[in-house]
Amino acid sequence: MDFYQCTRGETMRIDQLIFITDIARTGSIANTSERLYVSSSAISQAIRQLEEELGVKIFERSRTGLEPTRTGQKIIIKAQKIINGIEDLKNEAKSDSAELEGHLTISAVSSFCKIIIPKTCAEIKAKFPRITFEINEKNPHQVKKDVLRGNASFGINFYTYSTLEDNQLLTTTHLLDTPMMVCFRKDSELARINNISIDDIIKHPIAVSFTDNKDKNKYYAPIFGKNRELKTIIQSQNSDTRKYFISQGIAVGIETRLTLESDSFFHHEDFIIKPIFGINTILSYYCIRLKNQHFTAAAREFMKELCTQANRFKNENKSILSK
């Protein structure tokens, strides 16, 4: 059994360190139990034994769950370093690319799931066949939540300039910038306007991707204004649902250029795609991950390839604005 020797001559098990670092992320024994497939009673007992061995309280209960004590925070940081060191040893033993293995869980907004993530996964599988993936398409709020709770190795999210927060728990890697565009059928009244403003757009029913006010207020209000009422006819995270409303001429779409360039559906001659004038519509895509989570060799290779694919998309993709 893996262990570290304590000052009292007792053994500190690696699983105890894994439990306390995971609870620090999830906030509860129940969540950690579900994530690690270990019973809650076994986790509780392991933590109790560790606290007795160290002679300190690591967690205390609060209204929101378990919170690390001040001493507990220091112990958890050191525990994570020990876990990271063990993972480094395992990776060193499997430094040959053919032997590199690992499982990565990626939580991402839908626009990045169209081309860039599939191409990234294909390249990684070709180089490292023993790396496996689980890709979960989520809304922006859920992406961040998955990463903070330790349910995702990476999150791919977008932010406006004003909403990118300095979160002490997260590290961010910029991937690409893309403007929001308006798309509509060529028989729409908007087709007669050369420079389309947001005030022109809000006169028409709109198909949007946000499904709750939290995403609307955080990601759309900074661009379109808090006091502008959008006449939404359909709110859906499913881009296929939105585009069929647009194709029937009963809605106009507000989508990122990344989404529009990734989907050949919008390249049809029946559609017109134009920039929105008068406001800054730039969204920036970032890869986010927990700072204290071990950055495995598999994760490093994925990140490297993800950045390569994002740069390739920026450099090689022809803009549909010229059609």
Spans with pLDDT under 50 lasting ≥5 residues? 1-9, 319-323
Q: What percentage of the residues does DSSP assign to strands (E)? A: 15-25%
**Mean of the pLDDT scores?**
83
Task: Tell me the CATH architecture of the largest domain.
Answer: 3-Layer(aba) Sandwich
Whole-angstrom Rg: 24 Å
CATH superfamily of the largest domain: Periplasmic binding protein-like II
Integer count of domains: 3
Report the end-to-end length measured between terminal Cα atoms: 64 Å
Considering DSSP H and I runs of 4 or more, what fraction of the residues is helical?
40-55%
* CATH class category of the largest domain: Alpha Beta
Count every beta strand, where a strand is a DSSP E run of 2 or more residues: 13
Say what oligomer this is.
single chain
How are helices and strands ordered from N to C?
Answer: EEHHHEEHEHEHEEHEHEHEHEEH
Fill in the CATH topology of the largest domain: D-Maltodextrin-Binding Protein, domain 2
In DSSP terms (H or I, runs of 4 or more residues), the helix count works out at: 11
Outline the biggest β-sheet. 9 strands, mixed
InterPro entries: HTH-type_LysR_regulators, LysR_HTH_N, LysR_subst-bd, WH-like_DNA-bd_sf, WH_DNA-bd_sf
Protein name: LysR family transcriptional regulator
Family: Belongs to the LysR transcriptional regulatory family.
Pfam family, one: HTH_1
